[in-house]
Amino acid sequence: MLVIFVPQVFGYAIAVVATAVLQSHKRFAAGAVAPLISSLVVVATYLLFAAEAPEAEERHARERPDDGDRKREFRPCNIDIARQKINDTGFLDVDIDVSVDLFREIEKLKKEKNAVVLAHYYQEPDIQDVADFIGDSLGLAQKAAETDADIIVFAGVHFMAETAKILNPGKKVLLPDLKAGCSLSDSAPPELFKLFKEKHPDHLVITYINCSAGMKALSDIICTSSNAQRIVESLPKEQPIIFAPDRNLGAYINKQSGRNMLLWNGACMVHEIFSLEKITKLKIRHPNAKVIAHPECEAPVLAVADYIGSTTGLLKYAQSNAAQEFIVVTETGILHQMQKSSPGKTFIPAPPNNSCACNDCPHMKLNTLEKLYLCMEYELPEITMDEALRIAAKRPIDKMLELSANFGL
């Protein structure tokens, strides 16, 4: 301490003397005195910084953890604040060291915590590449029902993570961003649907899985785009049916099955805004391309499609069909798997009726690899649910899984 203190005092003394001399010899400042004064100031400055440097280095060394002690903890002083704000932000807003290999760290966390990552086809490519299973709503529900993992990390939207929790009450279910919602799910508030259902007491309720737990609890059977038509056709023709919440999918099934289901007026924002005009122009530029579309699209768009199916159905069709070009009329996330499974083929995203070149789901794309890592590291945000609601919502899901197994789906 003495070694540091002496230069400090000496430096301050030189600085004071130099200043006094300079003030008393202003008229000689431009002459012989100026170089001397400048030299004294430089020496004083050096001594001051030399005194401070060891102390500063020691302080920084105490504050900077060794690599072995970091254990993937970044900005620990902010994690408590991030936890408190999670309901507002939807995710853990914590910085991550830029040198961290997120792919490697996520794999480590899977093993350490016995966690499984389930990802929808509409997630960003990085998330798909790190996932243990990638699929559509039916496949993800089936995987969630059979997993033996302690933690389910759902890289999708809120209703998907809810479904996993409904099927796994004893497991921890995580969602990278709680604000990853769904426009179709939002179009069917349970309290309004309950009033609608009460006006048609003789109707059986088939509900598309893209809905909240509250909507599922009001349903008799849940369906997905993979099994909806098979489920409807398995019921007696005289059985009146309410189909919710997607009117486009319901209308497509009515047309295919010859039924006249009563449709709830809901829709997916992504599949509703595809431009028929732009798709037609694409077909002219690519005359050999096959148009493949999801049944959530509107009827005029489906009318020009060569194949209509779920995301898994679209993927399998693109793999097996001899065509080399495909105009894909669904969310662009599926293109990643299509390109991986058929690298020699060309996949063209169908454009929406706005200025964008392709159609991304803003909710699906809220999830990022960084958010996925953070939710696994800190096990937040977590999906929780009232037990009575969970039990009520599970019955129609179990019925769907039973029927799907009978159909061989």
Strand order of the largest sheet: 2-1-3-4
Helix percent band: 40-55%
What is the number of helices? 21
How does the helix and strand content classify structurally?
alpha/beta
If you had to describe this structure to a student in words, what would you say it looks like?
By secondary structure, the chain is α/β, with parallel strands linked by helices. The chain has four domains: 2-63; 76-181, NadA-like (Rossmann fold, 3-Layer(aba) Sandwich); 184-270 and 386-407, NadA-like (Rossmann fold); 274-358, Rossmann fold. Helix content is 52%, strand content 11%. It has a four-stranded parallel sheet, with helices on both faces. β5, α12 and β6 (221-223) form a beta-alpha-beta unit. It is globular, with a radius of gyration of 31 Å. Residues 1-77 have low confidence and may be disordered.
How are the elements arranged and paired?
Layout lengths: L1 H23 L8 H31 L3 H4 L5 H9 L1 H4 L12 H12 L1 E6 L4 H6 L2 E3 L1 H10 L4 E5 L2 H10 L4 E3 L8 H4 L3 H9 L5 E5 L4 H5 L3 E3 L4 H6 L7 E4 L2 H11 L4 E2 L5 H4 L3 H10 L4 E4 L5 H4 L4 E2 L2 H10 L4 E5 L4 H8 L4 E4 L19 H10 L8 H21 L2
Parallel strand pairs: 1-2, 1-3, 3-4, 5-6, 5-7, 7-8, 9-10, 9-11, 11-12
Helix pairs in contact: 1-2, 6-20, 8-9, 9-21, 18-19
